[in-house]
Design goal:
22% strand, 6-stranded parallel sheet, 16 strands, Lyase, Ornithine Decarboxylase, Chain A, domain 1, TIM Barrel, 32% helix, 6-stranded antiparallel sheet, homodimer
């Protein structure tokens, strides 16, 4: 991803919500990442405590408590950057910054059409940029526009079309802002599913991709649907052991609802059983691994490793990464911001 | 639940996999719980470290590492009880106990027909009981038969029929064992969905119910389907705040895939928004709350509280309980065995 950024003059700002790990962030930084995105104030606090700066928090911080934590965080990260999508929130943020005697940089968050966060129209975006520029304690830096609904469209043409439509609208907005002399210095967005398209659209100044660093089945499927090899290797696996094997055709392993995020479908066997085996959720701490007819079943105690359906919320279920090279355990890293 | 146990001469052995909390276990103990069930060796280690004894681990422990941890645990809990469903596993358990100079009590796990764990037939059960009795370092205590697939059948008659069928087969097995002079002292099973039926069947000696202590939508629906009020109050809520409100008809809150276990459907609004609102998952850290036409939308920063779809894996996402009485925070309790 860093090479991609260099080739296309795009800063790489990986999303920490994927891995929640200062160790992995340090590797990404060493590989060329400019800085990082965080989804929550808790992730940003972890990253700042680990010495990272110029952090961008990608969801609006609403209410005195969260804004207060952001203001406190500027002590560690004077370049902390927030997003706003609402004038009342921007006004409160500026007021509380003024009281604390600090200034905070902000991006105006633009809705890419998924209606999750972001101002809902070009006019509202321009109005909010103007308003933010008028507030004494906010530093207008530019725009955020993250098209989460586009990342997992499996048909390559449909994904390209949807992504370029979002980027086209964003380009128009940038031109209008430029005409007002309010040109955004930063335009932040993009993800693992659109990083190639985002480069082609040439609107963004930085990419927020996160999942590429470990990958999962959802993103593998984005490429598999078009018979392309995934551009990034899978680095994340959940290991489980067979704890019951009393039936022909299936065994029971010790990984269930508490071991995989289930929003993205089912885990896929990577090692330890026939790759044609199918996993089914079988309760809080149990999974069923069905072996195809004629294939040998894994025995009691056998270790089965799975590619996870969705990396971010799966990693959030664990306190530690076990880092292996081949069969050797080489490090144990904490999931630093799990659950915050 | 304790009163129910007293009324029907059933020991109550609540399942710790639900709450993973020594504080809640202490309250259950004070209310009359005999001891506790754990799903994992990690939960049992937490409970033993907190001073609880006579713990039952309800899934087979397979492999030297987990058996070794169980043997170490007998230092804290000499009455630790395990389940076995496989002669090779029982043999290894006995061998390792002999090497360590300890004896461990076991229940033979009987498959209630869901094919998850447990011996698959009456003959296999009798054979395994005989084998366990022959092993020098295992203490045969009885049977476990947990019908997880029956707990959430929403139609009351169908649930009753399915549950009594399981209990009927279990009664036959118990009679056969009695005829061999191998009568089980302990017969452990049952859950929140069948606790009334289990009492009526009069086969079990102890109930493993767990979810009753906090409840969730899945169990509320078991009663709602028959127009009955749930027999237990909901005590568990996830609180979220509105962070974006730029569209008529819906707002975005800060609780998503990382804040709810999603295997049991969607959270239901309990407070802070119209009770007729609908929640939809909207990403890792975002939820959509759709307000019915004509109802006021919650404002930016409004707190919305949800009843969770499935309590056990939702609690596992958090490090702490915030205990409130009315609007007052009265305690913060750790989720002691989160992720283990």
């Amino acid at each position: 991803m860093s090479k991609h950024g260099q080739d296309h003059d795009l800063a790489i700002r990986p999303h920490v919500k994927c891995h929640k790990s200062a160790q992995i962030a340090a590797l990404q930084r060493a590989a060329g990442a400019m800085s990082f995105c965080c989804a929550t104030i808790g992730e940003a606090e972890m990253m700042a405590a680990a010495g990272f700066t110029s952090i961008l928090i990608t969801s609006p911080l609403v209410g005195e408590d969260k804004i207060g934590r952001a203001i406190a965080l500027t002590q560690l990260d004077a370049q902390l950057c927030l997003v706003v999508d609402n004038p009342a929130n921007a006004a409160q943020l500026s007021d509380l910054c003024a009281l604390a005697g600090v200034s905070i940089d902000v991006l105006v968050d633009v809705d890419p059409g998924m209606h999750r966060t972001g101002v809902a129209s070009q006019i509202a975006a321009i109005e909010l940029v103007g308003y933010v520029r008028s507030l004494p304690s906010l530093g207008y830096q530019g725009l955020q526009c993250y098209a989460g609904h586009v990342q997992h469209i499996e048909d390559a043409e449909a994904r390209q079309e949807a992504s370029l439509a979002v980027m086209g609208a964003l380009r128009v907005l940038c031109e209008e802002l430029k005409a007002l002399d309010w040109a955004p210095a930063v335009i932040s967005g993009g993800g693992t599913g659109t990083y190639l398209i985002d480069a082609q659209a040439a609107v963004l100044t930085e990419l927020q991709a996160g999942s590429y660093v470990v990958m999962d089945n959802q993103y593998n499927n984005v490429w598999a649907a078009n018979a392309l090899p995934p551009p990034f290797d899978v680095a994340l696996f959940v290991q489980s052991a067979v704890i019951s094997a009393n039936h022909p055709g299936h065994v029971t392993c010790d990984a269930g609802f508490k071991h995989f995020a289930v929003d993205g479908g089912r885990p896929v066997v990577a090692r330890g059983a026939s790759l044609a085996s199918e996993y089914e959720y079988f309760g809080d701490v149990h999974g069923l691994v069905r072996t195809p007819p004629g294939q040998p079943q894994p025995g009691l105690g056998a270790r089965i490793e799975f590619v996870v359906p969705h990396c971010d919320p799966t990693i959030n279920l664990y306190d530690q990464y076990h880092c292996v090279r081949g069969d050797q355990l080489v490090a144990i890293w904490p999931v630093d911001a799990r659950g915050v």
